[in-house]
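Dear colleague,

Thank you for sharing your sequence with our group. We've completed the structure prediction you requested, and as agreed, I am returning the results in plain text so they can be pasted directly into your records. Please verify that the sequence below matches your submission; if there's any discrepancy, let me know and we will rerun it promptly.
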Amino acid sequence: MSKKDHMNTSVQEPPLDYSFRSIHVIQDLVSEEPRTGLRPLTHSKSGKSLTQSLWLNNNALNDLRDFKHVISQLLEHPQNLAWIDLSFNDLTTIDPILTTFFNLSVLYLHGNSIQRLGEVNKLAVLPRLRSLTLHGNPIEEEKGYNGVTRADRTTAEVWKRMNIKPKKIRIKQDTH
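Please find the predicted structure tokens below.
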């Protein structure tokens, strides 16, 4: 299977789901069994999951210490991680480790304890980030918060430049 084929198949894989497991530290993922869904997870020959989605929602995480190390033990291709759900935990900051997953397109952070609006700016380096949730965090109370990040504005500007053709200007010619 080529790398391109691998990326196409793993997008359709079910998530590695550790939601509602009362997980307090990331290291617990190694010993915890993920939830099972309707479709079974596919694993590589080394036993690692081939998914691009990781659900850690509704736990008690307050930091992401050792996140990259633990994820590399669970996923065959951690660099392809496209969806991370960290909603309903106790995170107070956006850990810079999240900015190292350049294929990340969906990041759920709602229902945490993120207090500073400046935390969101860290995510501007993620070129594929299309969906970010932050509602239910204390930053909603901060002046200037409107749910739209600098990354959202940058993405909108790039999309606009790429997809909206400039209006053609007609020059009215004199017919005298």
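Summary note from our side: The longest helix spans residues 150-163.

Kind regards,
the structure core
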